[in-house]
Amino acid sequence: MINTQLKQQLTNQVLLRVQQPVQYVGDELNIIRKDHRELEGKLCLAFPDTYALGMSHHGLQVLYALMNREPKWCCERVFTPWSDMEEQLRSNNVPLYSLETFTPLCDFDVVGFSLQYEVCATNLLTMLDLGRVPLRGKMRTMADPLILAGGPCAQNPEPLAHFVDVFVTGDGEPSLPLVCKLWRKLKGECERDGLAEGEEGVRQREEMLARLATELSFCYVPRFYEPEYFEGRVIALNRTRADLPETIEPSVIRDLDGIPLPVKPVVPYVECVHDRIAIEIMRGCPWQCRFCQSTVIKRPLRIRSVDTIVEGALESYRNTGFNEISVLSLSSSDYPHFEELVLRLKEVFNPLGVNISVPSLRVNEQLRSIAELIGNKRRSSLTLAPEVARDDMREQIRKKIKNEDLYEGCRQAFRRNFESVKLYFMCGLPGERPVDLDGIIEMAETIAKIGKEERGRYAKVTASVSNFVPKAHTPYQWNGMQSRDYFHWAHKYLRSKCSLRSVSVKCHDVETSLLEGALSRGDRRVGDAIELAWQRGARLDSWNEHLDAKRWWQALTDVGIDIQQLIHEPYQLSDRLPWDHVNVKSGRTFLEKEQTRAVVQLDSMADAQ
User: Fold this and answer.
1) With pLDDT > 90 as the criterion, what percentage of the chain qualifies?
2) Same domain for 420 and 473?
3) Does residue 161 fall inside a structural domain?
4) Is residue 245 part of a domain?
């Protein structure tokens, strides 16, 4: 319980405007002050979830370091407050503020949101509202900050089109500085002429946004594109200005090695999901799994050199003191110099007592030697993502792995003191059969038995089963989701087949998956449901204790959306998709060919039954 006097002191401290902004390169390290008079602009990076999750996101650290290297820009951070903090801010009439200087969001030039997962949509609205920024873009003037968004969920920007001024797809490192600098230049022109208010202010902002969209080809400004509907679905997206492009190109880094690593990451005061140094070794993936959005949107494949990675990891260690280093990519063991990299990292960091973590291992012949390569006394678990367990289904999803490689890799891991294995699978994929679900349990139990053969007791194996959600820009984007009843049946079936106590089956929440499907497949009308659900209390819905799925289904119904059509009915190849105006490498033609091949393979699987 906080006393009234102390509460008022804290409130006054938050409201106090700091005259000299601070750049934090670490909560406990190297606080560097910048001269406020020389600043061109202020950016706040906004992560629409809690601090513990946001501070574990590598992309936020990358962009934070990047923008704070700009000599005339100050970059700060903000996260979604927990429900009790939101209540305190509202009851004390305190705006949501940045962590570094307690600056309200409305006082920044640019607020940039990282959209990592769909069910955080209402968190964006909470942050805008608490930060005293008008919710809808068409209500803002040049006195309001530019609301910018990127990340995986920007691949279908339409559900949040009402609330975000500009979406950027592709790589953030080249695009973010350009957007910020151009917007500040445009804002400066308006300030010289006088910032307008009311309807004139709205028109002034619209003109500046049009200039932003025409000068930067990777910027999608949704207010200049009007969707056209027929029988409940989008059939066209019509430009309201002829000088804007019909489709938006992604921002792409050609030389990943030329982008500096964030070697002075912010060190949190509190425990986060990932308390470790993260080093991105490769961007993109050499494989083309049909269900995977990341492999499509992160093309082309780009790598960092071994020297850059090792030097960056060592400098990060000296600046933070973390005792674990994680090498990041979509498929780390496909890094072309993987063995050399791991050996170099172990040579440098083993004497320092620093653990080397290698997530995202691909199941291939190399897996047989990885346990020996990365194993150490502190590591006890191996994480793999076979996705499915049968060869014909793997062929259908284009995940070409072999069970013998997986089993032998696990055997070698158990011989080197690894104690457990976590496996990631999906259920509800197109053409899934009961035998595919049987295979999940058979694989998990086979690994547990291999553990007994090598260590004298059954190994602990966790089969983590997610529910398939078709995502934009994948060959499966035309597919619908399985029904609620099917997912519940599949989860129950999997658990009933499990006979070993050391094997556990963990299934993702069905309602969360269905909501993810609604938000990822939706068009601009879904934005009205997002706002209605938020007004009715939707907050922090990625947390199970907060999600009220009935509130969402009612909101979608109340704005006139056919939920069955939105989530479960497939699109035809000839249909216009809500996200078709956002381009990706290889384009829609490639995706259509892959979907057609997948359908042919499904027919062959059905004939073989």
Assistant:
1) 72
2) yes
3) yes
4) no
- Residue 547 pLDDT grade (very low, low, confident, very high; cuts 50, 70, 90): very high
| Whether residue 207 is found in the same domain as residue 291 | no
Q: Could you read off the pLDDT of 354-389 as tens digits, one per residue?
A: 988 887 777 766 666 676 677 655 557 888 999 999
189 shares a domain with 271: no
Give the number of other Cβ atoms within 10 Å of residue 25's Cβ. 19
Q: Is 519 left (phi over 0), alpha (psi -120 to 50) or beta?
A: alpha
| Together in a domain, 230 and 90 | yes
Q: What 3-state class would DSSP assign to 292?
A: coil
270, with CB counted inside 10 A (0-12, 13-18, 19+), is exposed
Residue 46 sits in a domain whose CATH number is 3.40.50.280
Q: What is the domain extent for residue 288?
A: 255-360
Domain membership flag for residue 386: yes
Burial of 35 (0-12, 13-18, 19+ CB in 10 A): exposed
> What pLDDT was estimated at residue 222?
97
Instruction: Find the angle CA(545)-CA(550)-CA(553) to the nearest 5 degrees.
Output: 130
Same domain, 224 and 288: no
pLDDT: is 133 or 404 the higher one?
133
Within 10 A of 404 (CB to CB), how many other CB atoms are there? 10
Q: Per residue in 205-261, pLDDT tens?
A: 999 999 999 999 999 999 999 999 999 899 999 999 999 999 999 999 989 999 999
Does 334 share its domain with 437? no
**Section 83-100 average pLDDT:** 96
Clarify whether residues 354 and 403 are in a common domain.
no
3-state percent helix, strand, coil for the chain, nearest multiple of 5: 45, 15, 40
Give the whole-angstrom CA distance, residue 290 versus residue 413: 29
User: Rounded CA gap, 243 and 239, in Å?
Assistant: 9
Going by C-alpha positions, the residue among 75, 72, 69, 110 that lies closest to residue 259 is: 69
Look-up of token digits 């990625």:
542
Query: CB-hemisphere CA count at 13 Å for 36?
Result: 7
Give me the torsion for CA of 305, 310, 315, 317, rounded to 10°.
140
Q: Is residue 3 domain-resident?
A: no
Per the structure, how many domains does the chain have?
3
Q: Are strands 166-168 and 219-220 parallel, antiparallel or unpaired?
A: antiparallel
Task: Give the pair of three-digit tokens for residue 142.
Answer: 């040049």
- Token pair for residue 189? 């022109």
Residue 37 to residue 272: CA distance in whole angstroms = 35
Q: Which of 186, 208, 239 is the C-terminal boundary of a domain?
A: 239
What does the mean pLDDT of the chain come to? 89
